[in-house]
Amino acid sequence: MIGGNDQSTPASNGMFRPVGSARESLTIMSFSVLALFAIVILTLLLSDVWYLASHRVGFARITEILTSQDVRRSMILSVWTSLFSLVLVLLFSIPIGYALSRYRFRGHAFLSTLVDVPIVLPPVVIGISLLAFFGTEVGMAVKAALRAAHLDIISGLGIVLCQFLVSVPYCIRAVKAAFDEVSNEVEDVALVLGCSQWQAFRRVTLPMARNGLVAGGIMAWARAIGVFGPLMVFIGTGARVQVMPTSIYLELSIGNVETSLTIALVMVFLASVALALVHRLAPGRQWT
Fold this sequence. Notes:
By secondary structure, this protein is an all-alpha fold.
């Protein structure tokens, strides 16, 4: 016989749900940990603002920092390289995500795991791997071909490559999840009604997965614009290849804490806007 407030009752799906004091204590614990974590993050963010305020860094000084030639150049370079990376990310993520979502084939698990490797690798390893690749005969041939086309790998092209490799797995996972939510039966109906496979994808599947695809793209862009480790290893910190993360590091290394914090707050603002858009477009989605 079940009794007391700290027991469990069977749910309709055969699982047991906590009732009474057990349920209340679980709720209190969950929200307490959530509140604690939120306080930690807010404290860290507000500490940046407090530091600037305590050192009398007002709006005029912040404007001066953001409009300085070096900072302005790094911000512009960050924006255009990350947007170019985003285009490449979407071009790769949509077909890869669709293939992983819709088809089961020999090697599926291996390829799915391989896609996730850049997520779990320390980003600096990607930079080291790029250095190793361009030191091989194949890599040197690629570099020579780029030079023949008047392209230098130690430039915006190299930045885009680093950003792409770090951010593309996030978008692939989001795209796959978006396609997973679109039933195969919807595509089958479109095929029965006379659509080709490509028409069914373009007119039915793609529009239904649109929000998830856009949210994945935004997440990938936010990840790309914050890439640091691979750039330090593969590109370096030359003036013509400085983006916002490397500018933060260089300014901090010479004691310009005010400038580094100002740039950091710009990046926090951009990341916050990106996350707000993601949660607006795909509420409740799980992100790797």
